[in-house]
Amino acid sequence: MKTLYTVVVRQAGGKWVTLCLENGVVGQGVSREEAIQRLREAIASLEEAVKVEGDVYSAPVSIRELHEFLTYEVDQPTDERYELCAVYG
After folding, report:
1. Fold for domain 4-88?
2. Cα-Cα-Cα-Cα dihedral sign, residues 34, 35, 39, 42
3. Are the C-beta atoms of residues 14 and 62 closer than 8 Å to each other?
4. Is the CB of residue 58 less than 8 Å from the CB of residue 24?
5. Are 8 and 84 in contact (CB under 8 A)?
6. What phi, psi does 85 have (nearest 5°)?
7. Is 19 in contact with 69 (CB distance < 8 Å)?
8. What is the pTM assigned to this prediction?
9. Any idea what DSSP says for residue 73?
10. pLDDT one-digit tens code per residue, 36-53
11. Following DSSP, what letter does each residue of 1-65 receive, concatenated?
12. I want to staple 35 with a disulfide (CB 3.0 to 4.6 A). Which of 29, 70, 71, 72 is the partner?
């Protein structure tokens, strides 16, 4: 069964970046779709590591970490838009 994850998607420095709010995993790509696909692959790797090792650290993203993600490469207030989406991993 696939798990539903909450993901923030944004464009930064000419690339697309994704952040999974449930576990802090990130993905990056030249397109939005590639960034989401890489995030799915990273989540699958994390899930596999948890199955194998059991004691892998994974925690939801804190508000501070989310703020850093949203304001990375931004020196002043911006009208940049961010996308929140659901991704099955």
Report:
1. Double Stranded RNA Binding Domain (3.30.160)
2. positive
3. no
4. yes
5. yes
6. -140, 165
7. yes
8. 0.84
9. T
10. 999 999 999 999 998 898
11. -PPEEEEEEEEETTEEEEEETTT--EEEESSHHHHHHHHHHHHHHHHHHHHHHS-----PPPHHH
12. 29
